[in-house]
Write a structure and sequence with these properties.
enzyme binding, two-stranded antiparallel ribbon, EC 4.2.1.134, fatty acid metabolism, endoplasmic reticulum, 75% helix, mainly alpha
């Protein structure tokens, strides 16, 4: 008797694609809920909704960003084909800004920059996860491919500027409250505002590296899936 073929749902490739589809779907639903919630609140309450953005959707945002750390594991074990370092830089930016800068300072949570930053993050992620989710099941649309590889070009630098502005606005509160600043043995100490200022410079260096990688990736992908112009 010859070898017995496994059912499709038991094959490793099927299980991997099913898992990735479920992961992308969960992320898409989370970010879509956040974006929809922010949009409805803005049209209902106007600028007042921007002040309490973090209180309204901060928990779901933190959950989505925490789950996104799984993407590093995906790349490491080989079920995603992205490069590890650029994705690590992008995730590190968000984790530091969201959990260290915004979550730890209630005064920063009420700033308009938090609302702007969340809008930028969700615009990028809704498109990216939609594209990834459909790609896993073999569906591709030229316009969606182009959008996923182009939308980040104006928005990602704006994200970094918003992140830098959030750090700048948080500095007086870290200085006043001494959050994360600590004394070490031998008369040494860590003054956290200095750490943030150093990170502020590193943020723009990381942006250059990430932008270069994403642009190279965009060129390679759009070479495979060109957008054909209609003949007039």
């Amino acid at each position: 008797m010859g070898p017995v073929a496994l059912p499709a749902w038991l094959q490793p490739r099927y299980r991997k694609n099913a898992y990735l589809f479920a992961y992308y779907l969960i992320q898409f639903c989370g970010h879509s809920w956040i974006f929809t919630n922010m949009t409805v609140r803005f049209f209902s309450f106007g600028k007042d909704s921007m002040v309490d953005t973090f209180y309204a959707i901060g928990l779901v945002m933190r959950l989505c960003q925490s789950i996104s750390l799984l993407e590093l594991l995906h790349i490491y074990v080989g079920i995603e084909s992205n490069h590890l370092l650029p994705r690590l830089l992008q995730l590190t930016e968000r984790i530091i800004i969201l959990f260290v800068v915004i979550t730890s300072q209630e005064e920063v949570q009420e700033k308009y920059v938090v609302c702007v930053l969340f809008i930028f993050w969700n615009l990028l992620d809704m498109v990216r996860y939609t594209y990834s989710m459909l790609s896993v099941i073999g569906i591709s649309y030229a316009i969606l491919t182009w959008l996923s590889q182009t939308l980040w070009m104006p928005i990602y630098p704006l994200c970094v500027l918003a992140e830098a502005f959030a750090i700048y606005q948080s500095l007086p509160y870290f200085e006043s409250f001494g959050t994360y600043s600590t004394k070490l043995p031998f008369d040494l100490s860590i003054y956290f505002p200095y750490v943030l200022k150093i990170y502020l410079m590193m943020l723009f260096i990381g942006m250059y590296f990430t932008y270069s990688h994403l642009y190279s990736e965009r060129r390679d992908i759009l070479r495979i899936f060109p957008i054909k112009k209609k003949k007039m």
